[in-house]
Amino acid sequence: xxxxxxxxxxxxxxxxxxxxxxxxxxxxxxxxxxxxxxxxxxxxxxxxxxxxxxxxxxxxxxxxxxxxxxxxxxxxxxxxxxxxxxxxxxxxxxxxxxxxxxxxxxxxxxxxxxxxxxxxxxxxxxxxxxxxxxxxxxxxxxxxxxxxxxxxxxxxxxxxxxxxxxxxxxxxxxxxxxxxxxxxxxxxxxxxxxxxxxxxxxxxxxxxxxxxxxxxxxxxxxxxxxxxxxxxxxxxxxxxxxxxxxxxxxxxxxxxxxxxxxxxxx
Length: 266
Fold this sequence. Notes:
CATH superfamily: Alpha/Beta hydrolase fold, catalytic domain
Number of helices: 10
Structural class: alpha/beta
Largest sheet: 6 strands, parallel
Number of domains: 1
CATH topology: Rossmann fold
């Protein structure tokens, strides 16, 4: 990459393929950025290939994914803006805390170490993984009904089913097990350097109807940053669920993210 444009690295979460960031990347390119959306380690280039070979996605943990993106970032000409959704949001927070980003936006980010609330809806949304301890080392797929509860509860059933067919892939169970055990482990991979005083600005985005990462988790995440004077902002989309980055209202979220970046000189 030789462009003078600010790089943006989009980081997907569990159960969505990296190509789901396509509309965001196009919008950000039009706004003057240089976006890329690399997959997680083991992710094939297409949704179809990922579904055909779930073993390639299995057993990658939080540290594996963080290191994978750090290596990608090291090849960029400048520190990028990091934008992540769900577990991708957690990865963006980790990378920002380690000074790999000029700033970050964490959208419905998975809980980091120190976050205590665990709402029942979040437990229900992740039950397809936790119902079998062996899933820690496997890649697990959602059914359309499970996706509807975890992602598509705030949109129509037809739209939820369409998004499921278009973007979903198997997801490694290991990050969920690591996050669940985070507050019981001293050196959990879900730990984020929330005290970093010199990091770039961070925006936490939450969906008010999110079942997978309810607003209680995002608000508790914000409190973890109270010991840092670096910019940490919070915004809510009250009527949105976990699908807010890929459903029909994605542009509203993306536009507010662009406005925040502009306000913070990023």
